[in-house]
Amino acid sequence: MLPQSLQDLIARQSGVISRGQALDAGLTPAAVDDRLRLRRWRPVHPGVYLAAGHPCDDEARVRAAVLWAGPGAVLSGLAAAWWHGMVEEAPLRITVIVPEPRRRRSGGDPVMTRHHRIAADDLEERRGLPVTAPALAALEAAVEAGAAGAVLLDHMLRHHVAFPEVRAAHLRNLVAPGSTTAARMLLAAADRSAAAAEDVLVRTLREAGARGWHRGVVSAGRPAPVVFPAARVAIEVTGWAWRPGEPGPVARPGWTVLRFSWADLSRRPAVIFATLDGRSAGP
Q: Is residue 133 in some structural domain?
């Protein structure tokens, strides 16, 4: 009969237990070997087992990978994004960041270990598992996803994490593997978001039946997505990369330039019309 503390630990860990945890809980090496011989536990990785009666589902696979990687291991990449609920499916290969290089091989599902230090702001514990925080997990997942990374990063920026948080996580991890690729992906995402914001603005105006506007240029050589010539009002939109406090365009004398963020366009379109109505340029 297993100690109650060990039974509780196995239940919390989706049926997964490491040899070290079992010994710490009071089992002898012979008792562990007996459970393996009797198939009450079966190996998932060297020194990591799955108790009988528990399915080897995605959560068990992920927990087993982190346990196998050893003390200080942190779930990262696509697996971390899945753990946070930012992607729907767990990857076949689990990525784990370890404090020291590891040479030993996993014995079951493929596990990739990476060695680098993680800032405290990029670490958290979720459901009893050390995992990279959402911002870093999103960026690492996009890099790990390869050709599909751009679409994945856009999805996570729209629904799960803010661009400034992801950018800050990148700056804290410039020496991490894939950092150069991550920088390119962030820059491309910022460009895509600005272009997408313009499309949302135009679509919003058209659907609302707004009149008296067209696309044009109002500032000193700087394009504005939309201008209302009669009211001498121009609208500029910003993507994810824009930070509050950054200077806007310098308008021609007598013109007003209004700036709306991606959040205004995607979540609060009424803000646009309330502001335009105040300028006598609304629909």
A: yes
| pLDDT for position 213 | 85
Whether 250 contacts 219, CB under 8 Å:
yes
| Residue labelled with tokens 């500029």 | 236
The residues, ordered by sequence, that sit 6+ positions from 165 with a Cβ below 8 Å of its Cβ are 134, 135
Query: Among 126, 157, 189, where does a domain finish?
Result: 189
- Exposure string of 218-240, with b = 16+ CB inside 10 Å and e = fewer, is bbeeeebbbbbeebbbbbbbbbb
Axis crossing angle, helix 179-208 with helix 270-278, rounded to the nearest 10: 60
In a domain, 21, yes or no: yes
- What pLDDT is attached to residue 281? 44
In a domain, 211, yes or no: yes
Structural domain count, the chain: 2
Residue whose structure tokens are 């697996």 = 79
Lowest mean pLDDT among 34-38, 176-180, 200-204, 270-274: 270-274
Q: Which of 158, 189, 220 is the last residue of a domain?
A: 189
- Any idea what DSSP says for residue 97? E
CA pair distance 12, 127, nearest whole angstrom: 9
Query: Domain limits at 146?
Result: 4-189
CA atoms of 14 and 9, how far apart (whole Å): 9
Q: What does the alpha-carbon distance between residue 246 and residue 141 come to, in Å, rounded to a whole number?
A: 29
- Rounded to two decimals, what is the model's pTM? 0.74
Q: Are residues 204 and 184 in the same domain?
A: no
Virtual torsion, Cα 138, 90, 128, 163, nearest 10 deg: 10
Regarding whether 176 and 198 lie in a shared domain, the answer is no
